[in-house]
Amino acid sequence: MFDKDKKIIYSGIQPSGEFTIGNYFGAIKNWVALQHEYNCIYNLADLHTITVPQEPAALRRRTVECMAMLIASGINPENSLIFLQSHVAAHSQLCWLLNCFTYMGELSRMTQFKDKSSRQGANIRVGLYDYPVLMAADILLYQSDIVPVGDDQRQHLELARDIAIRFNAQYSPTFKVPEGYFGEKGARIMSLADPNKKMSKSDENKNAFILMKDNKDVIISKFKKAVTDCDSEIRYDIKQKPGISNLLEIYSCSRSISIKEAEADFCGKSYAQFKLAVGESVADALAPIQSEFERLVKEKSYINSIFCSHAQTASNIAARTLSKTMRKIGFYQLEKQ
Ligand code: AQP
Questions:
Q1: What burial letters (b/e) apply to 77-110, b meaning 16+ CB within 10 Å?
Q2: Which of 200, 248, 280, 288 is 20 to 30 A distant from 89 in Cα terms?
Q3: pTM of the predicted model as reported, rounded to 2 decimal places
Q4: CATH number listed for the domain at residues 8-187+300-329
């Protein structure tokens, strides 16, 4: 499947909810484009989802749907590895090892932990605190060269690099130190209800996000309700006009044009006309993906065959790094009889 001369790209996405256009423009669309140039390893990160409560049947259903959505979006299982994290035991195993090379102070500084833990009340799960170490294990297991992530994951990627550098310095080169890849556009799609907050699939306010599965009417009605501001100028200015800037960003992503071109399209137009056009443009961009998704999601045995074969390939690659790491630390290795 892989070409030895190409660099390795690794990225993951959680089936913690149905994918939003934040996930699509910030991650999945870039993943699809990168497949031609790199050996790509994409992971449906279900172990990460249980850092917050999940309903078992819903998690199971969503996992299959998320896999179908990734393939419908253009991830090609013939060229890229695409598997479920819990099917490859090495992720949890390396996470434990790396926990012993990570400092409490580092994890306490993570803004995603501060943000999500403030919403969890009294009983904050250790898994939520440890999330960045599992993410470091995900990345380092595959000797990844490049990790495409949205802006929100920059801090976690930095930690993965720090852990790799620390481990390599203490023993000898073991992990490749990965570089981040931040797409030019869509790096941070914001909530439609609060443009100072990123769009998240687990937001309780359903009007805050557009799901990749939303139909045209729903999409247009959500954009109509999107928070803007009280003047009438359609221009990109994140500080003064975060709502309008976010809509311009979404429009430019959906049409694959620059922000300048997006602004030019709405010169002299009203907010109502602008919002309708953004909704229509997003619906048009999603339509072919949605029809492919509807076809694929019914093909249970095809999806299952991808889960099986890709988990096997990923396990083989991951086992090499895990065994090397354990040897360096000093664990006694079984000799073949
Ligand atoms: N709003 C966003 N704008 C740009 N990129 C985004 N990503 C997520 N939201 C946005 C990118 O999507 C990839 C997968 O993210 P994830 O599912 O692993 O976790 P997340 O970042 O926590 O995504 P959500 O939607 O906010 O999930 P919940 O609500 O469960 O926490 C990442 O590359 C991420 O940067």
A1: beebbbbbbbbbebbebbbebbeebbeeeebeeb
A2: 200
A3: 0.94
A4: 3.40.50.620
